[in-house]
Fold Ribonuclease P protein subunit p40 isoform X1.
Amino acid sequence: MYQELDKCPRSLLVCEKSNFEHEKSRHDTHVSKHYFNHKVSVVIPECGALSSRLASVINNFSKYFLVKNLPVYEFLDKDFLKNVVWNGALYALSYKTSIDQDNTIALLPNSQLILSVDKDTYEQLGLEGKPSQYNHRQPMRYVVTIDLTNKSMDPEGKRYQRVLSGLKERVPLKSDFLLGRHNSGADGDRALQSLLSRYQWKEHRPVVSSHTLKDLPCPSLHALDLRGDQRSCDPHSFLEWLGAVSAGVSCDNTAASFLSTYVCPEPQTLVSQALHCTVSGLLLPEDIYSLLQELRRYFDEPKFTSWLSLTVHGFMDSPVSWGDAEHGFHKGGENFYNLVLFKNQDYWLHMGTGSHDRCPP
């Protein structure tokens, strides 16, 4: 009975520590290459409300669009390619498509068009691709990657016409899409509005929620003890605690609680208050990086806490996780990273994926 509960899928957690001011720190690369993010969570111990500067950064996160039944070939429109795609300004992800069941599409800001499609669609498209890394015994899913900046994709070239024909005539793929852009300029705005005018669409802004937690048991963290050998809890326990905080699970295991026996990991301290702020939507890496930079400035003035946390969750059904690394769902589709920032500009980086993912960079 309940034997499936014992069959937990493999997961991978990569942990590293560095300093933001170190010349070899890769924090900017990790943030910028995680393209499709749907939720950001900030936890700040001994804090009751967002500062005006943090609130300003969060409230200035980029708007995005939900476009209904958008054909994929529209991304190959000559004007759209020139003024939006080739400027590296666009993030596009098919909406409510399951990566392990449906045809899933993404357009990356480096102008890579990713088509994760089933076997029948792949054979009809007539485009070169490769079997998914996460097939079973026989390939049932394929990934087609089209570099829209390649010279062969010049609108006057034969390959461009072949790709356009495949997406427009042989298999007219279409889907609802989430579109986000970062500073595309006047010509980019015009080209995007031209595309939107041909379809049903709605503009959205990220949803912000924040609340203050009172008398919260909180793990004690020390910048030098990433593994949790002495003065800190281990990374898995810390991330589990963050998950409990985000889910509103009590961490004190009181006798009156019949819902949870979870307790905050040791070593721990009791903080009088802690701020938990979340932002959800299609969240661009550029905006997340701006938030990270502002969080680094949080310690410019004396604070009662020695650390704070930033967690970023990727879309479960995105065809990529970091960069162009193929992403699969399996049993969870998790792909996330967490940064713990310390007073002295040291940081911990945790990167987590499920069994259908490459090792994070």
